[in-house]
């Protein structure tokens, strides 16, 4: 008993140290993906485009500048919001397993905690837009709230479908442990190749562009319309933290999709290689090609789209899982 307690205490102490390379590596990987995306989109549109490391240069440049606070804005809240958003995504990355590479401790949270953490960036953007005192920020706030209400429903249906599918196989009705979900697929095959799960897979793929602000769903931060909306008045390190938040959210959403539907059974170096390849492929398909080929929707069009197709896919997926069980 004494040795067991020592092991648990040691694991609790070492967990933050283990998280450091995971989260730092996720940030580096995310910035590289953004650089590849900008370069690829430029080439698809027959432009030269920026250098591959431009996202790194942007962060470094912003960190060297001063953060300006608009007159009348609550200074402490205005500057605390980007820090809160970026910290929430670093915490979320610590809850997402990278199969064969990293397993999060179950004592820190499960799928429900991750669901709440994923909502924080959108809430932070809404608060940023409302506290800035800018008209463009207020418009971005209303658009962010509308699109969030639209895509949260399909996401919840997808997570419940996967949780019920795994729970029923374990003699329970539902389980929200991501590690249980990953281990079940490693033993029984990935959900990506299960026809009963295809509606849930499609619903999750539909959720990604709106959550990450990818065209045609980049309506809250439309540069040509509302000058980046909630971020219009941000500059310097505060704006850099928002860019870090966006980068980390990209990796969290992609890694969560891999854990939910295609974790794989590799370990060691090959597990890392396949994780990077799967994230890159999903990112380029759901962002680069969309961004280069489609225009921006209106907010009402995006809202109706999510309440129609992804919502229906989520409901169908949940119905099929319950029927199968």
Automatic annotation (TrEMBL):
<dbReference type="InterPro" id="IPR052561">
    <property type="entry name" value="ComplexI_Subunit1"/>
</dbReference>
<dbReference type="Pfam" id="PF00146">
    <property type="entry name" value="NADHdh"/>
</dbReference>
<dbReference type="InterPro" id="IPR018086">
    <property type="entry name" value="NADH_UbQ_OxRdtase_su1_CS"/>
</dbReference>
<keyword id="KW-0472">Membrane</keyword>
<feature type="transmembrane region" description="Helical">
    <location>
        <begin position="238"/>
        <end position="261"/>
    </location>
</feature>
<protein>
    <submittedName>
        <fullName>Carbon monoxide-induced hydrogenase proton translocating subunit CooK</fullName>
    </submittedName>
</protein>
<feature type="transmembrane region" description="Helical">
    <location>
        <begin position="196"/>
        <end position="217"/>
    </location>
</feature>
<dbReference type="InterPro" id="IPR001694">
    <property type="entry name" value="NADH_UbQ_OxRdtase_su1/FPO"/>
</dbReference>
<feature type="transmembrane region" description="Helical">
    <location>
        <begin position="149"/>
        <end position="168"/>
    </location>
</feature>
<feature type="transmembrane region" description="Helical">
    <location>
        <begin position="267"/>
        <end position="290"/>
    </location>
</feature>
<feature type="transmembrane region" description="Helical">
    <location>
        <begin position="77"/>
        <end position="96"/>
    </location>
</feature>
<feature type="transmembrane region" description="Helical">
    <location>
        <begin position="302"/>
        <end position="323"/>
    </location>
</feature>
<dbReference type="GO" id="GO:0005886">
    <property type="term" value="C:plasma membrane"/>
</dbReference>
<feature type="transmembrane region" description="Helical">
    <location>
        <begin position="12"/>
        <end position="33"/>
    </location>
</feature>
<keyword id="KW-1133">Transmembrane helix</keyword>
<keyword id="KW-0812">Transmembrane</keyword>
